[in-house]
Amino acid sequence: MKVSVEKSEATSRLTTLISSILSVGLALCVAAIIFLSYRVNPLEAYRRILFSAFGSWHGFSETIVKAIPLMVCAAGLTIAFRAKLWNIGAEGQLLIGAISSSWVALSFPNSPSIVLLPSMFGLSFFFGSLWGLVPGLLRAKFGTQVAITSLMMNYIAAKILEHLVYGPWKGPAEWGFPQTSKFSISAQLPRLASTRIHYPTLLFGIIFAVFLHIIISKSRFGFEVRATGENPQAARYAGISYFKVAIITMLVSGGLAGVAGFGEVAGIQLRLRMGISPGYGYTAIIVAWLSRLNALLVIPVSLLFGGILVGGDAIQLMGLPFAAVDLFNGLILLCVVSGEFLNQYRIKVKK
Amino acid sequence: MMNALETFLQATVAAGTTYLLATLGEILTERSGVQNLGVEGMMIVGAVVGFAIAHTSGNVWLGGFIAAFTSGILGGVHAFVCVTLQQNQIVSGLAITMLGIGISGLLGKAYVGLPLSTKLLRYSVPFLSDIPVLGPFLFNHDPLTYLSMILVAVLWYFLFRTRGGIIIRSVGENPGAVDALGISVERTRYVCTILGGVLIGLAGAYLSLFYTPAWSEGMTGGKGWIVISLTIFSMWSPNRALFGAYLFGGVEVLQYRLQPLGISPSLLAALPYVATIVALMFGASERMRRRIGAPSALGRPYKRGD
Predict the structure, then answer these.
(1) CATH 1.10.3470 fits B2-292, yes or no
(2) What's the number of CA atoms in the CB half-sphere (13 Å) around residue B190?
(3) Residues A113-124: tens digit of each pLDDT
């Protein structure tokens, strides 16, 4: 009997699905071993995560709350990743979106909602896309790696945020906490009754996920993006402008992440502060990846990861620190990226 | 004034040592063509493991050793995904970082706020440490700092003056040619990624065993990402890494000392990242890349026959 690994010709949807499930399953098993070493029953932990995230309306509403920024960021990431532009800067783009919309909210507190919210939204998209444009432009003009430059931009954004909330923007009546004053009521996004679901952002995320899916799979531009991602040289010979693809995809993914930041400050925090994002921009990368860069799949997958974030609070009651969530997310991403191997290769057993 | 300068320089070296050790590791890894974005995760695992072992055993050296070993294992995992499975190096590195932060949070929970019974001591080099300015700058440190300085020379000599170094650089430059000579690209990349992890782990242990010395959650606070920028900033050269590490270390020390002058510590802390983007911009042209020796095959998995 001989076992060999061969490159498979085409990937079927079924093998993709199976490899995704296997990857998540493997991550669950490894995490279970780690939980056991902490004398925590993994089945009980998983049951609690599921129950707290999906078992009650309150829990589920919180899952949606956490899924909103993930969905909005990840939807944008799918289009950049399709072009093989590894934008890992969603976190920074989110923060910049939050900062710019906070500027509007704090500068014009007495304007009516009808003016304030759209301008906050617009500015967050604008500055988020500007933050995404920098790595895109550098890639198109100088050939620098988007992954590295967008990562650096994350830290620059985080430091600007830190500077603002500790310094010039610190609210005078916040007892010295590093945060701005609370937004006026007209700068707050409406919420669904008795929950924290800021539904305008949710609707925006769903609509944009569907819209991007159609763009990527049906439009001429979507074809250009996919062609550039699969073979940039061939795409260039076919007359597709790399510059155009890089700029537009980075503008879109940056802008969406910026809007996610607007949603967080105007819908959840109601002010700008440190720690407005527990790494949504990074988790969104896992969401996009596990969705196989399919913007439509981003919707359910972001709910799953929103649930994991909510579950992270629940397992703290079992004596596990919240870091267990990072561990779990890291394991999933590692298994999913490794599982890609199963899609590209077939293991053959010959007698 | 002299004294203030001496204190500043000494603090700069202390702050720079973490950067230096980890950057040397990352240079080795990247020279072989593997991009490792898992530095932050490996470093924080090194910090927590080093502290936990040193606290329990009372032996800092054992702590440093096990820390290096554990991060080396993470390097091995990264190599498995990137080299054996030939998957996306950026995503694998990010996953390692998340994993490392998670592991450190779990392992470290029991050690938050605990003291170390033994500390890594400073050894002043006799006579040399009495030289004004230069003495405290170079000759009044702990053993790990001396080790990091020696490693600069060792790694430089190894990479540029030995056969092994040529092989590593060729694997990062043109793996196909090396493969044709019958040298294993896979094995070279594995060794470099694991050894890179070892150095990064040591850098983390330096943080928790000497620089701070204590364990607190998330204590690396983005230092791993600075290492990635330093690797580019120093253009994959150990000598320039020495300069870059102390430069960035100096910025870190200045951060809070300049605050009374009205300079925002946060904005100052953003400088290394801005500097990296600028360095990338200037260093990215094909001509420059060739001159500074950026590994051409960086980030690309090697498949025979491609």
Answers:
(1) yes
(2) 12
(3) 999 999 999 999
